[in-house]
Amino acid sequence: MADSTGGDSDVLYLVSFLMALIVGLGIHSFIIGVNVSDWWRGRSVTPVDLFVTSIGISRICCQCILTIFHVLNMFVHVNLVIIDVVYNFCVLTSLWLTSLLSIVLCLKISNLHTRLFLYLRRMILPRTGRLIVASILLSVLSSLVILVTGITGLTNGEIYNTTMSGLSIKHLYNYAMAYFFPLLFYSISSVLFFVSLYHHITRMKMSSNLSINLETYYSAMRFVSFTFIYYTIYFIADFVCVYYYYVYHVNFSWLDLLLNFLPALHSSYLIWKTAKLRNRMSKVLQNVMD
């Protein structure tokens, strides 16, 4: 993350951050509210609903922490390690949950019938809650590794070393690896997802059944592709912020602003692509218009 300096630009960034926070809180809270209300009323909650709700909660935390970090650095100009740790934890949790959501979608929609695939389907789909807890624990572990390296660097006065000391390289390496592995799992699951759907769609097109509707499969492929683009942009932007902040002590507040807007954008797309969320949003908008 990065802080910002400079009179009028600080006010502009602060207003932009608060706008992104308000929009993000509204969108994420809507997703959480819809799924929690269904659970409260005794309606069935699917594994996808659980992952989407957990992602919404983690993204709310990310946006709040990022805004607090930005405001504190604007007015106090201090480096609060605990805020950085909590932010890393929230982001990593969101990324791991997003990766697992892709895996769950792959297992639910794909038509592979290999022993490994069927075994994974039986093992993963009924254990959604455990996977969410495992994602949280893994994010805690990764954040602690980053924290230990960062505290060591701050103690020795080497974390902001423009000569790229071995310690700063180690810190950035741990940071990059913590963020890279969720992206790697997402990429692998996405490739398997696309390969499976490609073969399935090819067989369906070659069949004599002309009433087959392929839009569901195309929609799923567009969602996975959009999420991968979002994931990649977020990873690159966040790493650039951290790299220049810790190595050259240069602050890119506009990238922080991008990181604050991206989750809300992806959650908006998630609402649009999820039938239940889309229908609820339509009803809300109709009530507002009336």
From TrEMBL:
Where is it localised? Membrane
The record's family statement is:
Belongs to the G-protein coupled receptor T2R family.
**GO molecular function (one):** G protein-coupled receptor activity
Annotated transmembrane regions: 12-36, 48-73, 85-110, 131-155, 175-199, 220-246, 252-272
Q: What is this protein called?
A: Taste receptor type 2
Q: Name one GO cellular component term.
A: membrane
Q: Which domain of life is it from?
A: Eukaryota
Q: Which InterPro entries match?
A: TAS2R
Bilayer topology annotation: Multi-pass membrane protein
**What's in the keyword line of the UniProt record?**
G-protein coupled receptor, Membrane, Receptor, Sensory transduction, Taste, Transducer, Transmembrane, Transmembrane helix
